[in-house]
Design brief:
The structure is a homodimer. Chain A is α+β, with helices and mostly antiparallel strands. The interface between A and B is large, with 47 and 47 residues. The first copy, chain A, binds a DNA duplex through helix 7.
DNA sequence: CGCAAAACATGACAAATGTCATCTTTCCCG
DNA sequence: CGGGAAAGATGACATTTGTCATGTTTTGCG
């Protein structure tokens, strides 16, 4: 657990303290679907009709900049919910959600979720906590984008990916396939810069590259380069 | 109302729909204080003991980067509350709050506020909405920091300041005194860059400078330079 | 009022980063 | 399995932006 700018992760679940009736109500009304890699759960600009719960799989949430460039806002893992921000503030989606691999996703209709919010205070409070954690994450990340050079941001992003998605059996290969472009859109820089820096990290023995697979070989050194925030 | 990255503003109040008893309870327990310009309401890293309501005056919320450089996270105006994020997630403050001018501030003790949250669902729901709006703001701002050049960011920031704090009687002079360094820490760049760009904007007739006073002379042009997000 | 400190301003320069062009490799789909 | 498209890689270069040095102006306070 690095005290880095992506520190949110490890949030349990907004339903962790829900009443049995709440869980039953949601189970009754949820609609589960299978999505292939690269499919879109929802689109930036659309109005939300419900909440998405990621049962299995990985998802990216990305926002389009003025010139159409993608900025990846959050990485979402199995067990997380998405789409709540727009739902709560009765607003359009601020980003599109696209699966990074095949995924099983449950949809909880808006009315059901809003009803749950009214009948089970614990869900509301947990949701408030989740929003708070994400707000903190976003605000720390603001600082990091404004103040850190690309090299440090990449190191930190690699650590963050490990923290979010973990590793394969070998305990070093990041358990997600992201293109260089996607990494660039997460770090907030040009794809070429990422390609150059990754091969530099590779040459310097911090990571090992094998196609889209990235192994974290020397984590201590990466942490040093990342120049992380407190803790 | 620009659809810009600082679009939050115009949020009314988390107590707008509160019950009379709620208001009474808060009024009974609140502690009001006067703060001189430059005084600190709370410090990054400390644990929160309550919520701050800004009755009059202006406040900046800033986070320290790794090398000790200030990043201004939010600008707060009279009528806003601050300190709720840390309170909700039972976390340390992620930023320090400092007055930008003399201010009257009410303090609502933690227990009182948490009790209100339990007894008046409207406050919780409004707080959730506020958090949602701020999260959106922060995530749009992430994109803007990652993708826009300093010139565009400065133009947008000037418009944002106008939107947040408004103007003096003349309807063009921004109603707040910020140092060049503070503007730089809001935009996320070096002070010298801001000084150069401001005098460039001045020369080109978009703004007029008079010490710390900044007049928005040609707003249309500024909007054009800012290259704003949708709407 | 006058002085010291802070803020503002400006130039010169270096470093970081983005862009463009081109080539190679990998991946996907029929 | 093969061919085309996408992704990855690399070099040359321009641009943006930050840094440092230095001078000027403003501000606050005894």
């Amino acid at each position: 657990m690095y005290g880095n700018c992506f520190a949110q992760s490890s949030y349990t679940s907004i339903f962790s303290k829900a009443k049995p009736e709440t869980v039953a109500e949601i189970n009754k009304h949820k609609i589960c679907n299978f999505y292939r890699k690269g499919q879109m759960l929802f689109t930036e600009g659309a109005f939300p009709f419900g909440l998405y719960y990621i049962k299995t799989g990985k998802v990216k949430l990305s926002h389009l900049g003025q010139d159409g460039k993608e900025q990846i806002i959050r990485l979402i893992n199995a067990g997380d919910v998405i789409g709540y921000r727009a739902l709560i503030s009765n607003d359009r989606y601020n980003g599109s959600a696209v699966t990074l691999e095949d995924a099983n996703v449950c949809f909880i209709p808006k009315e059901v979720f809003l009803h749950v919010l009214q009948t089970d205070a614990s869900v509301g409070f947990e949701l408030m906590k989740l929003l708070s954690v994400e707000l903190k994450t976003a605000e720390i990340r603001l600082t990091y984008l404004a103040q850190k050079p690309v090299r440090e941001r990449l190191a930190e992003t690699l650590l963050f990916i490990k923290q979010t998605y973990g590793c394969e059996q070998d305990a070093v290969t990041l358990d997600v396939r992201l293109s260089r472009e996607e990494i660039a859109n997460l770090v907030g820089t040009a794809t070429e810069s990422i390609i150059r820096l990754l091969s530099e990290f590779n040459k310097d023995g911090m990571i090992a590259l094998d196609g889209k697979k990235i192994k974290i070989v020397n984590e201590e050194e990466l942490i040093k380069i990342a120049n992380l925030e407190n803790v």
